[in-house]
What does this fold into?
Amino acid sequence: MPSRNAVIVGVTLGQLVRQLPSARFGLAPGRVRRAAWARALRLSFERLGPAFVKLGQLISVRPDEFSAELVAEMQSMQDAVPPIPASAIRSVIRHEFAAEPEELFASFDDTPLAAASIAQVHRATLAAPCRPVWGAVLPAGAEVVVKVVRPGAAESIRGDVAIVRRLATRLAGTRFARRFDPVALVDEFAETVDRELDLRKEGRFADRFVFDFRDDDKVVAPRIVWSRTTAKVLTMEHITGWRLSDLETARAAGVDCKGLAIHGATAFMRQVFVYGRYHADLHPANIFVTPENTIAYLDFGIVGYLTPEERMNITQVMAALVYRDPDRALRYSEKLGVHVPPEHIEPVRRGLGELLDGDVRPDGTRDFAHFGLGFLKLLGEHDIAIPGGYGLLIKSLATVEGVARALYPEIDIVSTARPFTTRILGRAMGDPVRVRERMPAAVRAALRVLTE
Amino acid sequence: MTDDVMRFFATWLFTHEAADEEIKAAIRRGIAEGPEGMTGGPDAFVDGLAAMVEEEKEKLKLDLEARARGEQASEEKESDPALDEIRFEVAELRGRLDTMESLLETILRKLGE
It folds into this structure.
């Protein structure tokens, strides 16, 4: 039986060979060739199992480090795998609770609701009322979903991560790894996957999300049933609604898609600019619109955190975009770790100004994705390193824009961001520490104006 | 001396008047112009901020009027975020206790087996 190492190399090489005709044996133009190799990698990742599916998902949110073709290909990665038999899922539940699902729930459905690389989801109903961390009590008989980590998933993922790390060490320093540090990427990936394998972490983030949006009846997230939750089993409220691919039905049912698009985008900005913790895995499968005219956020497996300082600097960059101020964008990007060498400042500033002034959509609305991804490309052209969190955030904001546009194509995300950024920066003006810091410069500036 | 004092207050009044005109103009620009219509740069931000301050002022006026009528001001109706935060932390702790209680039951069941 071949070793796992050999399987990984064999599958990847096999897919690369299959794509040779598409890449015209390496003679096709750069873009076509890159797209063919990207397709080969995506297909081999899908075949190699959960660790690689997750690695692909991580690549798909890092446009700062990988080519546009690879990022686009990995975005189409399917995390839908054939379900495993209910008996295997039941054995995990039995191991975690020393009880049959029927003893824990009033009913448990053996037919899975969804099956992904790490976990499988089943419907159940509560046997007794449950008081969640925040929000109304879930009554007995309430429909819940039970997310169960597939048996052996943790071990197989950790084993694969170790192999991938060895491969990354060999790749480091070669011409394939010019734009990124493969070992750092694998370490970041290992951390993300470890977090996803402990479902309690996802539950805690969902609780926090429900609390953060307690004053907003248009934004919902599932409440967690902690008495039926362990590291490998997560029980939560079942929220039903329409996926973004099924909006026609939602509209026919009277859902206000325009209102929800604006509200959903604002809710995301609130996560980033106000709380500094955000859902970093937003894609159409993780957002629902519900018959109650609310927007539901699901699956908090991948999340991003920002320190108060990063949050303020990101708000400043967003304000720079809203108010078309390239100097502000550069000043605060520098504070976020984007170091532009002095000889590149002028061309980068010029390029940034062009991006900020570009109305790229025919309806006159401004496009965040165009700015954000254009900025990353601009930095790449000048060989300027991009901090990991910065790339992830830009990708997340661009995704939110995409999601909001799916709900309401004419949405102007930049205008939607205006009140938020202005209010936050206005509030920061009153911060005593900041006032003390800035007052001498303000007085000097006032005196300069008065004496001119 | 009297002339100096008069001159001082006249200067103060003039400054106040000019500043008032400027801020009103900024508010007008901030309200009228979306970001698409702005020329951009730090001045556009100041206009946007002025428009929001105006909104806040109107809210304050309504609150003061409500207070004068003996009604509760909207600010007072809002819950205290610090208290809410403590309530959340306690509730989160309760969630963890639920998990621990369930774990204990699991251990007991396993021992029973």
